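Standup notes, structure subgroup. Blocker cleared on the fe (ii) ion input:
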Amino acid sequence: MHGSIYTDPAIFADEMERIFYSTWVFVGHESEVPEPNDYVVKSIGPQSVIMTRAKDGSIHLLQNRCAHRGNLVCEAPKGNTLAFRCQYHGWTYANNGDLLGFPYKQGYDGVLDKSNITLGRVPRVESYQGFVFGSFAPDGPSLREHLGAATECLDRLARISPAGEVQLTAGWLKHRVKANWKMLLENETDGYHPQFVHSSIFSVATSGIGALYSENSTALCRDLGNGHTENDLRPEFRRIAEPMGWFGTTAEKVPNYVQAMRDSYGKAAEEIMIDGSPHVMIFPSLFIAEIQLFQIQPLAVDQTVQHVTCMQFKDAADLNRRVLQQTIGSVGPAGFLLADDSEMYERNQRGVAARNPEWVLIARGLNREHTDAEGFTVSNNTDETTLRAIWRHYMTLMDH
Amino acid sequence: MPLTLIEAEAFLYREARLADTHDYDSWEELWTEDAIYWVPAGGDSATDPANNVSVLFDNRSRIGTRVRQLKSGKRHSQNPKSSVCRLISNVELLGEHEGDTVIGATALVVESRDDRTTMWAGRYEYRLRRVADDVRMSFKKVTLVDREHPLNTLSILL
Ligand code: FES
Ligand SMILES: [Fe+2]
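Run returned:
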């Protein structure tokens, strides 16, 4: 790829149009608005959108922009309300976006028809396993078609819960980095860097992570299609063959969870607790790393915010406590891991500003990637098959 | 016996100097064995850390890991180290918690690194304890004014 793809503001503007405002983009999770009339302010790219649950339980994505003269209609980050009232001139909207009324209406008699006016709506809203996505394209592939093979990863994630449900209820860390959003996208699927970038924590604390990304790891990386990619760590977890080994713990440490899993899934529980949770990047901005979830929010060509939370698995209180503590240790602005990843994105951004050599190399593993039994391209976990998958899909979106 | 304001201030200034100068070992020695070092994030994080993500929530063993990581020389986000200088002010005795003296203060920490200067401002809450002839901290909570906003990488000792 040419280095300017990370630094050219015109390319960034084009990406917003052709990717973030055209394809399916992750916005939030249904568990963030559990009750009727709950809302939470989220984003699609640089734009603010309000995710609401209307009285009838349906989920809506509304643009945070008054239809009158464009003021914000919602200032609080979350809450519960039947209606949003713009504070500028008092126009009021239902939580499904319909205009309820405007003050001093004589001034609009014969001028405006209230029933034609709504908040801007993200035209298509769909969920999968409770993960809510929005698309500004009024038509096109369905969310399921877009997710394709990645649906199976979200299914695998859900079954880590004895109730089969993930909840995003632990709040968000927001980490600002001076780097192009694609630096984050690439880093997060890059199995080549952990041994180098994270050697400091591997050298002072016991962690199984290093081994998963070593030269001898049996883990794989996989092109799932449509720009989605996976680092499939199951071969290593199956080699360990210990329930909860994927989480770096043992069944004895989380007895209630293990019992609940056996009650829910019977014999299949052992396999689920050995295979563990997926490590998957859903193009363009949702990254799930076993127990953590990241949303990449591009703000400008060299400015990105990474929103991070931890998974909370329904009916898994003892596991959830550990998931929360492990997440705080690893990720976010002060994380043992992510503080150094963010240092690398930022150095990378400064690096590509130099004009020679012009190209970045993403050839690692071309000599050994191959097609697996299900027809996916796979390779060694440290290979750049994931990056090639991302860029190939990116080119199909950007090329026309 | 509770600490006096003068003793508390002397401790806070010493801690500030050790953090500013990256004297990691001496800084680590200031903690008691039951210590908590906490930087809440936004939302409910500052009131319900058991159910919400924090920017940082270290027990004593994790404080040790943090220091060892910094000392490894391979903590890239502190290699090279930031240049740091902080002002501690508005120090008050706020009461007592299980025998420890509770201290409130405000601080402005200025960090310079690469092409960026970051100001970390916040309200600090300490619990200080007499141990032998010395003073130790069992609790330090840093409530950042920016905690609702996206934060820069935080790899210094706040
Ligand atoms: S801009 Fe919203 S009521 Fe005027
Ligand atoms: Fe990393």
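Discussed briefly. The longest strand of chain A covers residues 292-300.
Next: hand off to the docking folks.
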